[in-house]
């Protein structure tokens, strides 16, 4: 199959699964009050089990890599997932997505400072409407929440670091997305296993009476998370962290609409202007690349 078609297919899948996982997780936080870090740990476990099944069917081969080489990226993966989920739990869907948009300039700055990577002037100029759109959305959409804002800010930094590291590790060890995720998911789950008792009421979580629909939604969230991780790894490894973020902004518009329809979050005319600017930035970026 044509390489461009394969890339487009994975991009579409990633957008679809990413939208579903955000709305699913928000539903779990709003209607069930499911513990955030515990949910992230479940996602990692389900992802690892999914990879084991894939490996049994010869979808990929396990590559021998020293565990110590995977520890740092597993830690950033924990931080990336937990902090972004905490941002989602404490902010509106719109504010959560606006914060994620700032990952793009953060990735560029990291790559320029720490990895001496150069970007053309036109690529940098495409960031102007994106950042301007983010500012407009922040101004008219954000409900000031100290805790939520802190989680969102930390999430932007850790997410940017994580995405850059994924790209580097895949190239350094010649790993495909599944091979890298095979090591990372269980290590991240083990790390959270030791953290959960200090952050969340484990006894209440397991002794609470969960309905069948609650269990189904949690299980569905874990399965969708597996496909989000898999497609995200493929895109970052085959393209770049910058491309992943730029394409990811298309999710922003759809998630704002979903948040408005499902969770009754207001979508003001000024936000529409910001969204339009963001889409303009995406179109310009695609044209430049």
How do you describe this structure in short?
The protein has 289 residues and is mostly helical.
Describe this structure in words.
The protein contains 13 helices and no strands. The chain starts with a helix and ends with a helix. Helix 9 (177-199) crosses helix 11 (212-238). The protein is mostly helical and 289 residues long. It is 82% helix and 0% strand. The chain is globular. The model has no long low-confidence stretch (mean pLDDT 81).
Report mean pLDDT, rounded to a whole number. 81
Estimate the global geometry from the Cα principal axes: globular
Largest sheet: none
Strand content: under 5%
**What's the SSE pattern?**
HHHHHHHHHHHHH
The span between the termini is: 22 Å
Tell me the total number of β-strands: 0
Specify the helix fraction band: over 70%
**Could you list the spans in which at least 5 consecutive residues all have pLDDT below 50?**
none
Count of DSSP H/I helices: 13
* C-alpha-based Rg, rounded: 19 Å
Structural class: mainly alpha
Q: Which descriptors apply to this entry?
A:
289 residues, mainly alpha, 0% strand
SSE topology:
Layout: H1 3-32, H2 36-56, H3 71-90, H4 93-101, H5 103-114, H6 121-125, H7 127-141, H8 146-172, H9 177-199, H10 202-207, H11 212-238, H12 241-262, H13 269-288
Helix pairs in contact: 1-11, 1-12, 2-9, 2-11, 3-8, 3-9, 4-7, 4-8, 4-12, 5-8, 5-12, 7-13, 8-11, 9-11, 11-12, 12-13
């Amino acid at each position: 199959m044509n390489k461009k078609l394969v890339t487009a297919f994975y991009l579409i899948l990633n957008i679809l699964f990413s939208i579903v996982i955000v709305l699913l997780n928000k539903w779990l936080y709003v209607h069930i009050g499911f513990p955030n870090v515990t949910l992230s740990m479940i996602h990692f476990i389900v992802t690892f089990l999914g990879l084991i099944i894939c490996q049994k069917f010869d979808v990929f081969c396990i590559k021998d890599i020293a565990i110590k080489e995977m520890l740092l990226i597993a830690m950033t993966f924990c931080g990336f997932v937990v902090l972004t989920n905490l941002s989602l739990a404490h902010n509106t869907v719109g504010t959560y997505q606006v914060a994620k948009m700032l990952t793009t300039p953060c990735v560029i700055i990291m790559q320029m400072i720490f990895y001496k990577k150069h970007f053309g002037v036109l690529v940098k100029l495409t960031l102007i409407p994106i950042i301007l759109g983010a500012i407009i959305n922040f101004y008219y959409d954000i409900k000031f929440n100290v805790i939520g804002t802190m989680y969102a800010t930390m999430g932007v930094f850790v997410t940017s670091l994580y995405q850059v590291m994924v790209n580097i590790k895949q190239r350094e060890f010649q790993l495909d997305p599944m091979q890298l995720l095979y090591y990372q998911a269980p290590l991240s789950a083990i790390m959270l296993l030791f953290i959960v008792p200090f952050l969340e009421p484990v006894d209440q979580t397991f002794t609470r009476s969960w309905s069948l629909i609650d269990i189904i939604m949690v299980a569905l969230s874990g399965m969708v998370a597996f496909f989000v991780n898999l497609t995200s790894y493929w895109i970052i490894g085959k393209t770049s962290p910058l491309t992943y973020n730029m394409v990811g902004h298309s999710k922003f518009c759809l998630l704002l609409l979903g948040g408005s329809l499902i969770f009754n979050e207001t979508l003001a005319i000024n936000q529409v202007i910001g969204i339009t600017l963001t889409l303009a930035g995406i179109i310009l970026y695609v044209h430049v690349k």
